[in-house]
Amino acid sequence: MLHTGHPGEAQFRELADFAPVMIWRSDLDKLCDFFNAPWLEFTGRPLEAELGFGWADGVHPDDYDRCVAIYSTAFDERSSFSMDYRLRRHDGEYRWVRDNARPFLTNGQFAGYLGSCIDVTDMIDAVEERGRLVAEKAALTRELHHRVRNNLQLITSLLVLQADTVDGPTTRDALREAAQRVQTMALAQTTLHETDSFSSVDLSDYLRLLVEAAGSLQPGAARFEFTGVPVRMTLERSLSIGLAINEALMNAARHAFPDGRKGHVSVTLSSGPDDAIHIDVMDDGVGLPRPDLLHRPRTLGLRLMTRLIAQSGGAAQVLPSERGASLRFRLAP
Protein backbone atom coordinates (compact mmCIF):
# COMPACT_ATOMS: atom_id res chain seq x y z
CA MET A 1 0.00 0.00 0.00
CA LEU A 2 1.34 3.40 -0.96
CA HIS A 3 1.37 5.98 1.78
CA THR A 4 0.78 9.70 1.43
CA GLY A 5 3.61 10.31 3.86
CA HIS A 6 6.27 9.09 1.43
CA PRO A 7 8.76 11.94 0.72
CA GLY A 8 7.97 11.98 -3.01
CA GLU A 9 4.22 11.48 -2.66
CA ALA A 10 3.30 15.14 -2.34
CA GLN A 11 5.37 16.04 -5.39
CA PHE A 12 3.83 13.18 -7.38
CA ARG A 13 0.30 14.29 -6.54
CA GLU A 14 1.07 17.90 -7.40
CA LEU A 15 2.56 16.98 -10.77
CA ALA A 16 -0.29 14.56 -11.52
CA ASP A 17 -2.90 17.21 -10.82
CA PHE A 18 -1.37 19.44 -13.49
CA ALA A 19 -1.10 16.65 -16.08
CA PRO A 20 -3.28 17.07 -19.22
CA VAL A 21 -4.67 13.55 -18.80
CA MET A 22 -6.65 11.66 -16.18
CA ILE A 23 -4.30 9.65 -13.96
CA TRP A 24 -5.05 6.84 -11.55
CA ARG A 25 -2.94 4.55 -9.37
CA SER A 26 -3.61 1.22 -7.71
CA ASP A 27 -1.73 -0.68 -5.05
CA LEU A 28 -0.97 -4.37 -4.44
CA ASP A 29 -4.57 -5.36 -3.67
CA LYS A 30 -5.86 -3.99 -7.03
CA LEU A 31 -7.63 -1.13 -5.28
CA CYS A 32 -7.06 2.41 -6.49
CA ASP A 33 -5.48 4.79 -3.97
CA PHE A 34 -5.15 7.90 -6.13
CA PHE A 35 -6.96 9.86 -8.85
CA ASN A 36 -5.68 13.20 -10.07
CA ALA A 37 -7.66 16.41 -10.40
CA PRO A 38 -8.55 15.98 -14.12
CA TRP A 39 -10.13 12.59 -13.30
CA LEU A 40 -12.20 14.04 -10.50
CA GLU A 41 -13.21 17.00 -12.66
CA PHE A 42 -14.33 14.59 -15.37
CA THR A 43 -16.42 12.35 -13.12
CA GLY A 44 -17.60 15.15 -10.82
CA ARG A 45 -17.22 12.83 -7.84
CA PRO A 46 -15.11 13.32 -4.70
CA LEU A 47 -11.90 11.39 -4.30
CA GLU A 48 -13.40 9.22 -1.56
CA ALA A 49 -16.10 7.95 -3.91
CA GLU A 50 -13.56 6.89 -6.53
CA LEU A 51 -11.02 5.20 -4.25
CA GLY A 52 -10.83 1.45 -3.97
CA PHE A 53 -13.13 0.05 -6.63
CA GLY A 54 -15.54 2.95 -6.52
CA TRP A 55 -14.33 4.24 -9.90
CA ALA A 56 -15.95 1.23 -11.59
CA ASP A 57 -19.41 2.59 -10.65
CA GLY A 58 -18.98 5.09 -13.48
CA VAL A 59 -18.21 2.46 -16.13
CA HIS A 60 -21.03 1.82 -18.61
CA PRO A 61 -22.93 -1.38 -17.71
CA ASP A 62 -22.25 -2.84 -21.18
CA ASP A 63 -18.50 -2.35 -20.71
CA TYR A 64 -18.23 -3.20 -17.03
CA ASP A 65 -17.47 -6.94 -17.15
CA ARG A 66 -15.00 -6.59 -20.02
CA CYS A 67 -13.27 -3.65 -18.36
CA VAL A 68 -12.89 -5.38 -15.00
CA ALA A 69 -11.73 -8.63 -16.63
CA ILE A 70 -8.99 -6.88 -18.63
CA TYR A 71 -7.82 -4.98 -15.55
CA SER A 72 -7.78 -8.04 -13.28
CA THR A 73 -6.09 -10.32 -15.82
CA ALA A 74 -3.36 -7.80 -16.58
CA PHE A 75 -2.82 -7.15 -12.88
CA ASP A 76 -2.39 -10.85 -12.16
CA GLU A 77 0.04 -11.20 -15.06
CA ARG A 78 1.90 -7.97 -14.16
CA SER A 79 1.49 -6.87 -17.79
CA SER A 80 0.68 -3.54 -19.40
CA PHE A 81 -2.74 -3.07 -20.94
CA SER A 82 -4.78 -0.68 -23.02
CA MET A 83 -8.53 -0.66 -23.29
CA ASP A 84 -11.42 1.54 -24.35
CA TYR A 85 -14.57 1.82 -22.30
CA ARG A 86 -17.34 4.29 -21.61
CA LEU A 87 -17.06 6.32 -18.42
CA ARG A 88 -19.84 8.50 -17.03
CA ARG A 89 -18.98 12.19 -17.10
CA HIS A 90 -20.14 14.69 -14.46
CA ASP A 91 -23.10 15.68 -16.66
CA GLY A 92 -24.32 12.10 -16.90
CA GLU A 93 -23.09 11.50 -20.46
CA TYR A 94 -21.04 8.41 -21.09
CA ARG A 95 -17.79 9.21 -22.89
CA TRP A 96 -15.33 6.79 -24.45
CA VAL A 97 -11.95 6.86 -22.71
CA ARG A 98 -8.75 5.10 -23.66
CA ASP A 99 -7.06 3.70 -20.58
CA ASN A 100 -3.36 2.83 -20.77
CA ALA A 101 -1.64 1.33 -17.74
CA ARG A 102 1.54 -0.42 -16.75
CA PRO A 103 2.99 -1.86 -13.53
CA PHE A 104 5.54 0.14 -11.58
CA LEU A 105 8.24 -0.88 -9.13
CA THR A 106 9.38 0.46 -5.78
CA ASN A 107 12.86 -0.60 -4.66
CA GLY A 108 12.79 -3.20 -7.43
CA GLN A 109 9.54 -4.74 -6.20
CA PHE A 110 6.15 -4.67 -7.89
CA ALA A 111 4.10 -1.96 -6.18
CA GLY A 112 0.96 -1.60 -8.28
CA TYR A 113 -0.24 0.07 -11.46
CA LEU A 114 -0.14 3.56 -12.89
CA GLY A 115 -2.60 4.47 -15.58
CA SER A 116 -3.77 7.41 -17.67
CA CYS A 117 -6.99 8.04 -19.55
CA ILE A 118 -7.94 10.38 -22.37
CA ASP A 119 -11.36 11.12 -23.82
CA VAL A 120 -11.47 9.57 -27.31
CA THR A 121 -15.19 9.97 -27.97
CA ASP A 122 -14.75 12.53 -30.74
CA MET A 123 -12.17 10.34 -32.43
CA ILE A 124 -14.38 7.24 -32.24
CA ASP A 125 -17.38 9.20 -33.52
CA ALA A 126 -15.27 10.48 -36.42
CA VAL A 127 -14.12 6.95 -37.26
CA GLU A 128 -17.70 5.66 -37.15
CA GLU A 129 -18.91 8.54 -39.31
CA ARG A 130 -16.14 7.89 -41.80
CA GLY A 131 -17.05 4.21 -41.82
CA ARG A 132 -20.66 5.11 -42.52
CA LEU A 133 -19.66 7.42 -45.36
CA VAL A 134 -17.32 4.77 -46.80
CA ALA A 135 -20.12 2.21 -46.66
CA GLU A 136 -22.51 4.60 -48.41
CA LYS A 137 -19.89 5.39 -51.04
CA ALA A 138 -19.22 1.68 -51.58
CA ALA A 139 -22.95 1.02 -52.04
CA LEU A 140 -23.20 3.90 -54.51
CA THR A 141 -20.10 2.69 -56.34
CA ARG A 142 -21.57 -0.82 -56.65
CA GLU A 143 -24.80 0.58 -58.03
CA LEU A 144 -22.97 2.79 -60.52
CA HIS A 145 -20.76 -0.13 -61.51
CA HIS A 146 -23.76 -2.33 -62.26
CA ARG A 147 -25.46 0.39 -64.26
CA VAL A 148 -22.35 1.31 -66.25
CA ARG A 149 -21.51 -2.35 -66.89
CA ASN A 150 -25.05 -3.15 -68.01
CA ASN A 151 -25.18 -0.11 -70.28
CA LEU A 152 -21.83 -0.89 -71.88
CA GLN A 153 -22.80 -4.53 -72.35
CA LEU A 154 -26.02 -3.41 -73.98
CA ILE A 155 -24.15 -1.06 -76.33
CA THR A 156 -21.67 -3.82 -77.22
CA SER A 157 -24.46 -6.30 -77.89
CA LEU A 158 -26.34 -3.82 -80.05
CA LEU A 159 -23.24 -3.08 -82.11
CA VAL A 160 -22.46 -6.76 -82.60
CA LEU A 161 -26.09 -7.48 -83.48
CA GLN A 162 -26.11 -4.64 -85.98
CA ALA A 163 -22.86 -5.90 -87.49
CA ASP A 164 -24.44 -9.31 -88.07
CA THR A 165 -27.36 -7.79 -89.96
CA VAL A 166 -25.60 -5.40 -92.35
CA ASP A 167 -24.49 -6.49 -95.82
CA GLY A 168 -21.53 -4.23 -96.46
CA PRO A 169 -18.22 -5.64 -95.15
CA THR A 170 -16.84 -2.16 -94.46
CA THR A 171 -19.81 -1.23 -92.29
CA ARG A 172 -19.76 -4.62 -90.59
CA ASP A 173 -16.07 -4.31 -89.73
CA ALA A 174 -16.56 -0.75 -88.44
CA LEU A 175 -19.39 -1.89 -86.14
CA ARG A 176 -17.31 -4.78 -84.82
CA GLU A 177 -14.41 -2.44 -84.15
CA ALA A 178 -16.69 -0.07 -82.28
CA ALA A 179 -18.07 -2.98 -80.23
CA GLN A 180 -14.59 -4.12 -79.30
CA ARG A 181 -13.54 -0.61 -78.25
CA VAL A 182 -16.62 -0.29 -76.05
CA GLN A 183 -15.91 -3.67 -74.50
CA THR A 184 -12.32 -2.61 -73.81
CA MET A 185 -13.57 0.38 -71.82
CA ALA A 186 -16.07 -1.84 -70.03
CA LEU A 187 -13.28 -4.22 -69.01
CA ALA A 188 -11.28 -1.33 -67.56
CA GLN A 189 -14.26 -0.30 -65.48
CA THR A 190 -14.85 -3.87 -64.30
CA THR A 191 -11.18 -4.36 -63.44
CA LEU A 192 -11.18 -1.18 -61.37
CA HIS A 193 -14.29 -2.25 -59.49
CA GLU A 194 -12.86 -5.66 -58.63
CA THR A 195 -9.38 -4.50 -57.62
CA ASP A 196 -8.30 -3.90 -54.02
CA SER A 197 -7.16 -0.39 -54.84
CA PHE A 198 -8.83 2.55 -56.54
CA SER A 199 -5.48 4.03 -57.58
CA SER A 200 -3.99 1.15 -59.57
CA VAL A 201 -4.81 -2.13 -61.27
CA ASP A 202 -2.94 -5.29 -62.17
CA LEU A 203 -2.04 -4.70 -65.81
CA SER A 204 -1.57 -8.44 -66.32
CA ASP A 205 -5.14 -9.24 -65.26
CA TYR A 206 -6.48 -6.40 -67.38
CA LEU A 207 -4.62 -7.52 -70.52
CA ARG A 208 -5.71 -11.10 -70.00
CA LEU A 209 -9.33 -9.98 -70.03
CA LEU A 210 -8.70 -7.92 -73.17
CA VAL A 211 -7.16 -10.87 -74.99
CA GLU A 212 -10.05 -13.13 -74.00
CA ALA A 213 -12.53 -10.49 -75.16
CA ALA A 214 -10.70 -10.11 -78.48
CA GLY A 215 -11.07 -13.82 -79.06
CA SER A 216 -14.78 -13.81 -78.26
CA LEU A 217 -15.44 -10.87 -80.63
CA GLN A 218 -13.47 -12.44 -83.49
CA PRO A 219 -14.85 -16.00 -83.58
CA GLY A 220 -12.93 -18.30 -85.89
CA ALA A 221 -10.41 -15.70 -87.04
CA ALA A 222 -7.56 -16.71 -84.75
CA ARG A 223 -6.67 -18.24 -81.42
CA PHE A 224 -5.74 -15.56 -78.86
CA GLU A 225 -3.40 -16.26 -75.94
CA PHE A 226 -1.88 -14.21 -73.10
CA THR A 227 1.02 -14.80 -70.74
CA GLY A 228 2.46 -12.28 -68.33
CA VAL A 229 3.84 -11.31 -64.97
CA PRO A 230 1.96 -9.18 -62.39
CA VAL A 231 2.54 -5.46 -62.91
CA ARG A 232 0.79 -2.69 -60.99
CA MET A 233 -0.13 0.36 -63.02
CA THR A 234 -2.20 3.45 -62.41
CA LEU A 235 -5.72 3.22 -63.73
CA GLU A 236 -5.23 6.07 -66.21
CA ARG A 237 -2.03 4.56 -67.61
CA SER A 238 -3.48 1.05 -67.73
CA LEU A 239 -6.49 2.26 -69.68
CA SER A 240 -4.30 3.91 -72.35
CA ILE A 241 -2.14 0.78 -72.60
CA GLY A 242 -5.18 -1.48 -72.78
CA LEU A 243 -6.78 0.55 -75.55
CA ALA A 244 -3.50 0.51 -77.50
CA ILE A 245 -3.14 -3.27 -77.15
CA ASN A 246 -6.76 -3.64 -78.16
CA GLU A 247 -6.06 -1.75 -81.40
CA ALA A 248 -3.12 -4.08 -82.10
CA LEU A 249 -5.34 -7.12 -81.50
CA MET A 250 -8.05 -5.80 -83.80
CA ASN A 251 -5.46 -5.05 -86.45
CA ALA A 252 -4.13 -8.61 -86.23
CA ALA A 253 -7.62 -10.11 -86.37
CA ARG A 254 -8.55 -8.02 -89.42
CA HIS A 255 -5.42 -8.28 -91.54
CA ALA A 256 -3.18 -11.14 -90.40
CA PHE A 257 -5.44 -13.98 -91.51
CA PRO A 258 -7.16 -13.19 -94.80
CA ASP A 259 -9.51 -15.51 -96.68
CA GLY A 260 -10.62 -17.27 -93.48
CA ARG A 261 -7.26 -18.85 -92.71
CA LYS A 262 -6.56 -19.90 -89.13
CA GLY A 263 -3.81 -18.51 -86.96
CA HIS A 264 -2.48 -17.63 -83.56
CA VAL A 265 -2.11 -14.26 -81.80
CA SER A 266 -0.13 -14.03 -78.55
CA VAL A 267 0.35 -11.20 -76.09
CA THR A 268 3.24 -11.42 -73.63
CA LEU A 269 3.88 -9.07 -70.71
CA SER A 270 7.42 -9.19 -69.33
CA SER A 271 10.15 -7.15 -67.64
CA GLY A 272 12.89 -5.81 -69.86
CA PRO A 273 16.24 -4.10 -69.22
CA ASP A 274 16.32 -1.14 -66.84
CA ASP A 275 13.04 -2.37 -65.30
CA ALA A 276 11.19 -1.39 -68.46
CA ILE A 277 8.00 -3.26 -69.25
CA HIS A 278 7.62 -5.05 -72.57
CA ILE A 279 4.33 -6.03 -74.12
CA ASP A 280 4.81 -8.13 -77.26
CA VAL A 281 1.91 -8.72 -79.66
CA MET A 282 2.82 -11.44 -82.18
CA ASP A 283 0.92 -13.39 -84.81
CA ASP A 284 1.76 -16.08 -87.37
CA GLY A 285 -0.19 -14.44 -90.15
CA VAL A 286 0.80 -12.84 -93.44
CA GLY A 287 3.00 -10.18 -91.83
CA LEU A 288 3.04 -6.41 -92.12
CA PRO A 289 2.67 -4.80 -95.53
CA ARG A 290 5.70 -2.56 -94.92
CA PRO A 291 8.30 -2.11 -92.13
CA ASP A 292 7.62 1.59 -91.53
CA LEU A 293 3.95 1.01 -90.78
CA LEU A 294 4.13 2.48 -87.27
CA HIS A 295 6.02 5.58 -88.38
CA ARG A 296 3.50 6.39 -91.09
CA PRO A 297 0.19 5.00 -89.85
CA ARG A 298 -2.65 5.51 -92.30
CA THR A 299 -5.56 3.84 -90.56
CA LEU A 300 -7.51 5.15 -87.58
CA GLY A 301 -6.60 2.09 -85.52
CA LEU A 302 -2.85 2.47 -86.00
CA ARG A 303 -2.96 6.19 -85.30
CA LEU A 304 -4.91 5.51 -82.09
CA MET A 305 -2.47 2.79 -81.09
CA THR A 306 0.66 4.91 -81.44
CA ARG A 307 -0.89 7.92 -79.72
CA LEU A 308 -2.28 5.90 -76.82
CA ILE A 309 0.99 4.13 -76.12
CA ALA A 310 2.82 7.47 -76.24
CA GLN A 311 0.31 8.90 -73.73
CA SER A 312 1.18 6.03 -71.38
CA GLY A 313 4.88 6.86 -71.47
CA GLY A 314 5.84 4.20 -73.97
CA ALA A 315 6.76 3.57 -77.58
CA ALA A 316 5.92 0.93 -80.18
CA GLN A 317 8.32 -0.79 -82.52
CA VAL A 318 8.26 -3.55 -85.13
CA LEU A 319 10.45 -6.53 -84.22
CA PRO A 320 12.10 -8.74 -86.83
CA SER A 321 10.01 -11.83 -87.45
CA GLU A 322 10.46 -14.77 -89.80
CA ARG A 323 6.73 -15.31 -89.89
CA GLY A 324 3.82 -13.02 -89.27
CA ALA A 325 4.03 -9.72 -87.43
CA SER A 326 5.68 -8.88 -84.12
CA LEU A 327 5.06 -5.59 -82.28
CA ARG A 328 6.71 -4.53 -79.05
CA PHE A 329 5.37 -1.87 -76.72
CA ARG A 330 8.11 -0.67 -74.41
CA LEU A 331 6.92 1.14 -71.26
CA ALA A 332 9.06 3.09 -68.83
CA PRO A 333 8.87 1.72 -65.25
Integer count of domains: 2
What is the CATH topology assignment of the largest domain?
A: Heat Shock Protein 90
Supply the number of helical segments.
Answer: 9
Spans where pLDDT lies below 50 across 5 or more residues? 1-5
Which features characterize this protein?
2 domains; Beta-Lactamase; elongated; single chain; 5-stranded antiparallel beta sheet; alpha+beta; Heat Shock Protein 90; 24% strand; 5-stranded mixed beta sheet; 333 residues; 47% helix
Describe, in short, the structure shown.
This protein has 333 residues and is α+β, with helices and mostly antiparallel strands.
Polypeptide structure, described:
The protein is an alpha+beta fold and 333 residues long. It folds into 2 domains: 9-119, Beta-Lactamase (2-Layer Sandwich), CATH 3.30.450.20; 125-331, Heat Shock Protein 90 (2-Layer Sandwich), CATH 3.30.565.10. Helix content is 47%, strand content 24%. The chain has helices spanning 9-17, 37-43, 47-50, 61-77, 121-165, 169-194, 203-217, 235-255, 300-311, and strands at 22-26, 32-35, 81-88, 94-106, 109-119, 200-202, 223-228, 232-234, 264-271, 277-283, 314-318, 326-331. The chain has a 5-stranded antiparallel beta sheet, with helices on both faces. Strands 7-9-10-12-11 form a 5-stranded mixed beta sheet, with helices on one face. Strand 4 (94-106) and strand 5 (109-119) form a beta hairpin. The longest helix has 45 residues, at 121-165. The chain is elongated, with a radius of gyration of 35 Å. Mean pLDDT is 86; it is low at 1-5.
